[in-house]
UniProtKB/TrEMBL annotation, chain A:
This is Phosphoribosylformylglycinamidine synthase subunit PurL. Pathway: Purine metabolism; IMP biosynthesis via de novo pathway; 5-amino-1-(5-phospho-D-ribosyl)imidazole from N(2)-formyl-N(1)-(5-phospho-D-ribosyl)glycinamide: step 1/2. Keywords: ATP-binding, Cytoplasm, Ligase, Magnesium, Metal-binding, Nucleotide-binding, Purine biosynthesis. ATP binds at Y85, K126, N536, G573. Mg(2+) 1 binds at E128, N574. The active site is at H82, H130 (proton acceptor). It comes from Blastococcus goldschmidtiae.
UniProtKB/TrEMBL annotation, chain B:
Transmembrane segments: none annotated. This is Phosphoribosylformylglycinamidine synthase subunit PurQ. Part of the phosphoribosylformylglycinamidine synthase complex involved in the purines biosynthetic pathway. Catalyzes the ATP-dependent conversion of formylglycinamide ribonucleotide (FGAR) and glutamine to yield formylglycinamidine ribonucleotide (FGAM) and glutamate. The FGAM synthase complex is composed of three subunits. PurQ produces an ammonia molecule by converting glutamine to glutamate. PurL transfers the ammonia molecule to FGAR to form FGAM in an ATP-dependent manner. Part of the FGAM synthase complex composed of 1 PurL, 1 PurQ and 2 PurS subunits. Coiled coil: none annotated. The gene is purQ. Keywords: ATP-binding, Cytoplasm, Glutamine amidotransferase, Hydrolase, Ligase, Nucleotide-binding, Purine biosynthesis. It catalyses: L-glutamine + H2O = L-glutamate + NH4(+); N(2)-formyl-N(1)-(5-phospho-beta-D-ribosyl)glycinamide + L-glutamine + ATP + H2O = 2-formamido-N(1)-(5-O-phospho-beta-D-ribosyl)acetamidine + L-glutamate + ADP + phosphate + H(+). InterPro entries: Class_I_gatase-like, PRibForGlyAmidine_synth_PurQ. HAMAP family: PurQ (MF_00421). The keyword DNA-binding does not apply. The keyword Ligase applies.
């Protein structure tokens, strides 16, 4: 089954505007339920809206007539890939089948999962993609991506406390990257900064495969007390439906179906009008108003308006509830009075929420909104029946069973096929690649890896993000994980990491998803936190390509198996498909987020070296593993072979050890080894505070430096004996590498790499590509002002 | 000792300013922009953020809020006022401090740990520092470039009203590296960097910012 999606997409926007004015009869008449019943055979532009013939037929069967224009609009957006998960659903069920976790308070299916982090606190976190909008309109696409995920977290009843961003672009030196990246970074920063949410970390990676398909994945985390959890359902006949926040305009109409659900066609028309425009100031007011509404117990059920706007919010609220819902569309506050009812239902105007409120509490609800200058309107009520009905100018234009719109959309078991090139790719072992043979070559490869766009200093990006606001940020980029305090009295806090190595996933999606899970898990553990729960953002190409579908299914299976082995629940996630231009799909990119808990954030372990004279130890075993490595990619432009071996039992033992050492204050730094191996890790730890080290690596220095074997962490300690004993007791291999100190990284008898030279290479890359700072200093604290610890 | 912290729509660092007051030993008092009520506080902090989304000009709309009329009147009677970042912008827009804050010269929002030199240790908010002392506190802004005409800047420097200068790199292109200024009587101080983000070892690059808040407690007692 390979239908011509690009043809449908090319005219989707046109199809929408044709809804009420298009061929024939609808120009002058409102398309009511009554009219739809009497004109059952009239033709409708279902194909232009992205529906397939059998999907349209099913809508007619559900309704017993043709849908009205407004109903057709609702079904088309809600049954789009983005909203219905129709291609991914059959696979995602594996996450729900994982063993029950005591930590999971609310699981998959709600806006975001909720995890118990102790002391009565609950944390909700989720990562979501805004890939296609960010390519079309980088600033607004990225900004509204942050806005959308923040509203998801708010909807659960939580105060949003931090954001992260995981970004991928085409080649760093490609002209289009210079167009897209600065706008995306400014958009992530512009929205998050204005909202008052610290950005605590993320990823920035480059690969040819993302040219024309950048990935912009945004994560938000929020905190609340257990009793404050709110759910998205409409209950209690007679309760009022209140729409509050920004007015509804014409922006983003059909955004999810047009942008997120179909492949970009190089020949297609510009899609600019379908991207939404964000207003973080309004969202900040919405956050404060919502939290006050929750605190005063004025909300029975709540849902944010994201993709598919009012269509989605009303149908999901009604579908999850016990009754029906009636909405009077004339009461929706509009920014543009010329919008048609179908457009109002589909508009993706940002910064809007929909609440279910008891009649006796409506006045109080509206008063809180007035205090925060938030516009609010009663637009309908919960009914006894099982229908979602919508009126416009006194006439019925929607009358549907809400479950059929929101939860009972089409489900596909798409055909799958192992990529034809995979055997050849895996057989292309990097063992054949020339290795450095002299010290000078070794040094050149080292500098090449750490100054590559993937390995280089990310300050050019992260300096555009506020990491201090709210005063609870304990660790942020460039640390292994972001750490945020959630209680100032007890010092309890959380740690979060996002990781998504797509080279590994390209070589083996089943292993790749697990390796990403392992890396995020290890990053969280390196700070001393106990890993607790998992979220994910699965970025893939077109599901209509059987090879992509196979990659997707393998990645999901891998993630589910990995979570089972680590004993972690999946709390929710997001799927982004159709990430391809023409026939070329992106590398499969499962971005995995792991949340951990710190009982006392004062014991957190940072990644940088501050103190001279400490012993540098390596935990874990190093094997000659270069498949998908940064070294192979940077030095040889090579992707092939097998990704490094996965050992989740070793990861688990390592995480337990790191948690114990952190809690006892036995290690003063810990840094995960991943992309770029030991060379990258040593560089980052040394440059953080300008402390070098003298090290002795074993005979195969090349492998020691550039292998990407998993389950490894470098630590420094003033008590090597105690740490070694703990490692041996935990069954974690430990190797002594040397001692911190000096202003160079010295490999005994082999290399002497001055930190100044290393820093110059590492920190120059992004400013050279995207514009250097005109003022100011290198990214670390100036000499002579060593921070207190 | 009651130190008011104003919340405007879009204020972000109000919780941080209140925490700083508390850690310094004072009692933070929340003040609401729409009320004509200073709640008998001994001093006022205008926190950072994006009041009114920086619409029109950063700080312009907040400067015209009901409570700011009381702040301006109070300042004229000697009420100590500290404006941080967006609060500094509001004070300039309200006419309590000279000059203006404009878009950073490099056009990016920039967040980094910044060294400042303390040029005046005799204002209501800087008594616990030494003149010439270097302190490390975060700076984070998109519109933090302090500007004025040469004549105005000459006069400002002539009157010794520059309280802080950027050292080791100017993060936003501010004229003459000016990071903060004060009123003629030294009771009103505004600066772009964020002392409230440098009050705990755990969360800040230093604890150098706490001095603002301990200074004001002493200044109020001795006034």
């Amino acid at each position: 089954m390979s239908e011509d999606v690009t043809a449908g997409q090319a005219s989707a926007t046109a199809g929408l505007s044709d809804l009420d004015t298009g061929p024939g009869r609808l120009a002058d008449r409102l398309d009511t339920v009554e009219l739809a019943t009497s004109t059952a055979d009239d033709e409708q532009p279902w194909a232009e809206l992205g529906l397939k013939a059998d999907e349209y037929a099913r809508i007619k069967e559900i309704l017993g007539r043709r849908p009205t224009t407004a109903e057709l609009a609702m079904y088309s957006v809600m049954w789009s890939e983005h909203c219905s998960y129709k291609s991914s659903k059959v696979h995602l069920r594996q996450f729900g089948d994982l063993p029950k976790s005591d930590a999971l308070l609310v699981g998959i299916g709600e806006n975001a999962g909720v995890v118990d982090v102790g002391e009565g606190y609950a944390v909700t976190f989720k990562v979501e993609s805004h890939n296609h909008p960010s390519y079309v309109e980088p600033y607004q696409g990225a900004a509204t991506g942050v806005g959308g995920i923040v509203r998801d977290i708010l909807t659960m009843g939580a105060r949003p406390i931090a954001v992260m961003d995981s970004l991928r672009f085409g080649r760093a030196d490609a002209p289009d990257t210079a167009r897209v990246l600065p706008g995306v970074v400014a958009g992530v920063g512009g929205y998050g900064n204005c909202l008052g949410l610290p950005n605590i970390g993320g990823e920035l990676l480059f690969d040819e495969c993302y040219a024309g398909n950048p990935l912009v994945n945004a994560l938000c985390v929020g905190v609340m007390k257990h009793e404050d959890v709110h759910l998205a359902k409409a209950e209690g006949a007679g309760n009022k439906v209140i729409l509050f926040g920004a007015r509804t305009g014409g922006d983003g109409i059909g955004g999810v179906s047009v942008l997120a659900s179909e492949t970009f066609d190089a020949e297609g028309p510009a899609k600019r009008p379908a991207v939404q425009v964000g207003d973080p100031f309004t969202e900040k007011l919405l956050i404060e108003a919502c939290l006050e509404l929750f605190a005063q117990d004025l909300v029975t059920g709540i849902q944010d308006l994201g993709g598919a706007g009012l269509s989605c919010a009303t149908s999901e609220l009604a579908s999850a509830g016990t009754g029906g819902m009636h909405v009077d569309l004339d009461t929706v506050p509009l920014r543009d009075s010329t919008l048609t009812p179908a457009e109002i239902l589909m508009s993706e105007s940002q910064e809007r929420m929909c609440a279910i409120v008891e009649p006796g509490k409506v006045e109080q609800f509206l008063a809180v909104c007035r205090k925060w200058d938030v516009r609010a309107a009663v637009i309908g009520e919960v009914t006894d029946g099982d229908r979602l009905t919508v009126d416009w100018h006194g006439e019925r234009i929607v009358d549907v069973p809400p479950r059929t719109v929101a939860h009972e959309g089409p489900v596909y078991e798409r055909p799958m096929a192992r990529p034809a090139d995979l055997d050849a790719l895996q057989a292309d072992d990097p063992a054949r690649l020339p290795r450095p043979t002299t010290a000078a070559e070794l040094q050149a490869h080292w500098l090449a890896v750490v100054s590559s766009p993937d390995g280089a200093d990310k300050s050019w990006v992260t300096e555009q993000y506020d990491r201090y606001v709210r005063g609870n940020t304990v660790l942020a980029q460039p640390e292994d994980a972001g750490v945020v305090r959630i209680d100032e009295q007890s010092h309890r806090g959380i740690a979060l990491s996002l990781d998504g190595n797509a080279r590994f996933a390209r070589l083996d999606p089943y292993a790749g998803a697990q390796l990403n899970l392992a890396e995020a898990y290890r990053n969280v553990a390196a700070t001393g936190a106990k890993p607790l729960a998992v979220t994910n953002c699965l970025n893939f190409g077109s599901p209509e390509n059987p090879e992509v579908m196979w990659q997707f299914a393998e990645a999901v299976r891998g993630l589910a198996d990995g979570c089972r082995a680590l004993g972690l629940p999946v709390t929710g996630g997001n799927v982004s498909l159709y990430n391809q231009t023409g026939d070329v799909a992106i590398n499969p990119t499962p971005v995995i987020g792991v949340l951990g808990v710190h009982e006392d954030v004062r014991t957190r372990v940072p990644a940088g070296w501050r103190t001279a004279g400490e012993t540098v130890l390596l935990f874990g075993e190093t094997r000659a593993e270069f498949g998908g490595s940064a070294w192979a990619s940077v030095v040889h432009g090579h992707l092939g072979g097998r990704p490094p071996a996965l050992d989740l039992a070793a990861e688990r033992a390592l995480a337990d050890l790191l948690g114990a050492l952190g809690g006892e204050g036995l290690v003063s730094s810990a840094h995960d080894l991943a992309d770029g191996g030991l060379a990258q890790a040593l560089t980052e730890s040394a440059l953080r505070y300008g402390t070098g080290a003298r090290l002795a690596l074993d005979d195969d220095v090349f492998t020691a430096l550039f292998s990407e074997s998993t389950a490894r962490v470098v630590v420094t300690t003033s008590d090597p004996g105690g740490v070694k004993r703990a490692a041996e007791w935990a069954g974690v291999p430990v190797t002594e590498l040397g001692t911190t100190g000096g202003d160079a990284l010295v490999l005994d008898g082999l290399l002497d790499l001055p930190l100044a030279e290393l820093r110059a290479a590492w920190s120059a890359t992004l400013p050279a590509l995207f514009g250097g700072p005109e003022h100011g200093t290198p990214s670390t604290v100036p000499a002579g002002t060593v921070p207190t610890s | 000792m009651r130190i008011g912290v104003i919340t405007f729509p879009g204020s972000l660092d109000d919780v941080d300013a209140a925490r700083a007051v508390r850690l310094a030993g004072g009692e933070p008092v929340s003040l609401w922009h729409g009320d004509h009520d200073l709640k008998d506080v001994d001093a006022v902090v205008l926190p950072g953020g994006f009041s009114y989304g920086d619409y029109l000009r950063a700080g312009a709309i907040a400067a015209r809020s009901p409570l700011m009329q009381d702040v301006v009147a109070g300042a004229k009677q000697g009420l100590p006022v500290l404006g941080i970042c967006n609060g500094f912008q509001v004070l300039c827009e309200a006419g309590l401090l000279p000059g203006a804050l404009t878009r950073n010269s490099h056009l990016h929002f920039r967040n980094r740990d910044q060294v400042l030199s303390v040029e005046r240790a005799d204002t209501a908010w800087t008594g616990d520092y030494e003149q010439g002392q270097q302190i490390l506190i975060p700076v984070k802004n998109g519109e933090g470039r302090y500007v004025g005409s040469d004549a105005d800047l000459d006069r400002l420097e002539g009157e010794n009203r520059v309280v802080f200068r950027y050292v080791g790199g100017n993060p936003n292109g501010s004229s003459r590296d000016i990071a903060g200024v004060t009123s003629e009587n030294g009771r009103v101080v505004g600066l772009m960097p964020h002392p409230e983000h440098a009050i705990e070892d755990l969360t800040g690059p230093s604890t150098d910012g706490l001095g603002f808040f301990t200074s004001i407690l002493k200044a109020v007692v001795s006034a």
